[in-house]
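Milestone 3.1: sequence recovery, worked example.
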């Protein structure tokens, strides 16, 4: 992994008042939050990554760290993805362009990255999920796609060109023949090039396509967006452990026949579900525990000595190629 030059450490606890540019938190929430994309120039000026590219690759070698390596051909018509943990040999033969390394939940491993969450004090802390860090050489991308969650994309080193597209949903067609959720059709509606310190906010469902223009590090601050199925599954697990559960009982026998499931039976089931839905005390207790539980249970101990991994190519130190 090419080194990306000297790094600056995060000033813990410092509030960057420029995070939203000239917008007040109130204006941002009323105008942009879950409504439309926003580019903020110099949102985090002069902020350096606590991880270098080499260290990010080293982090992906750890068995408890979730990571992905996405590759494409030069015209971005063919895509592949591999999942970590990786080995140093996985980085040894990478080309000089057209790939991306993404490491999830870096905030669980690196305290300086976790401190970055404090800069989003204008949003409820329990809404934040994790901070993903990605490194990409020129041409690196994960393809045109959309997310089901809010995300702030902070350009920390290098430049990345973003195309913003249409609003998508679960019925939007995806490209066949790949394990990646790449859009089959992408309609460009706006374009921006982000330099170090710039930030792009994207609401759920907004298509976007970012391509690295040079060696770059991008931080993705994501927010929780559990599906109804995920919530019901967790709630069901929670209910199984409770001794005072509601129990199914048959309706009046005069309302049903011997061998059929009737409307009366479904009414009984529906009444149980409605009783649960109306129990705000139980739902509040469960939901508070659910949304504050870390999605990534492993990796709670910071890695103080960062491992590194390098490509077969020469390393870049302070922007100067060294043999």
């Amino acid at each position: 992994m090419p080194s990306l030059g000297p790094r600056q450490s995060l000033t813990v606890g410092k509030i960057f008042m420029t995070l939203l540019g000239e917008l007040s938190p109130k204006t941002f929430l009323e105008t942009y939050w879950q409504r439309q994309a926003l580019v903020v120039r110099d949102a985090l000026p002069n902020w350096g990554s606590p991880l270098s590219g080499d260290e990010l690759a080293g982090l992906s070698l750890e068995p408890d760290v979730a990571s992905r390596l996405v590759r494409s051909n030069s015209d971005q018509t063919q895509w592949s993805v591999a999942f970590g943990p990786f080995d140093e040999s996985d980085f040894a033969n990478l080309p000089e362009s057209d790939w991306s390394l993404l490491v999830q939940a870096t905030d669980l491993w690196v305290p300086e990255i976790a401190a970055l969450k404090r800069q989003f004090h204008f949003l409820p802390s329990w809404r934040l999920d994790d901070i993903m860090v990605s490194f990409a050489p020129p041409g690196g991308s994960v393809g045109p796609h959309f997310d089901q969650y809010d995300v702030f994309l902070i350009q920390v080193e290098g430049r990345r060109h973003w195309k913003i597209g249409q609003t998508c949903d679960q019925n939007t067609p995806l490209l066949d023949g790949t394990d990646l959720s790449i859009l089959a059709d992408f309609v460009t509606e706006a374009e921006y090039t982000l330099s170090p310190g710039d930030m792009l906010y994207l609401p759920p469902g907004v298509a976007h396509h970012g391509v690295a223009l040079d060696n770059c590090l991008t931080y993705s601050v994501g927010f929780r967006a559990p599906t109804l199925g995920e919530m019901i599954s967790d709630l069901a697990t929670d209910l199984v452990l409770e001794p005072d559960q509601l129990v199914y009982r048959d309706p009046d026998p005069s309302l049903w026949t011997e061998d059929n499931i009737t409307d009366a039976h479904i009414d009984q089931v529906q009444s149980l579900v409605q009783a649960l839905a109306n129990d705000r005390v139980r739902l509040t207790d469960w939901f508070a525990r659910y949304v504050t539980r870390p999605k990534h249970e492993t990796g709670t101990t910071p890695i103080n000595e960062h491992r590194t991994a390098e490509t077969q190519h020469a390393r870049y130190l302070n922007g100067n190629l060294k043999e």
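Residues 263-277 form the longest helix (15 residues). The chain has a mean pLDDT of 85.
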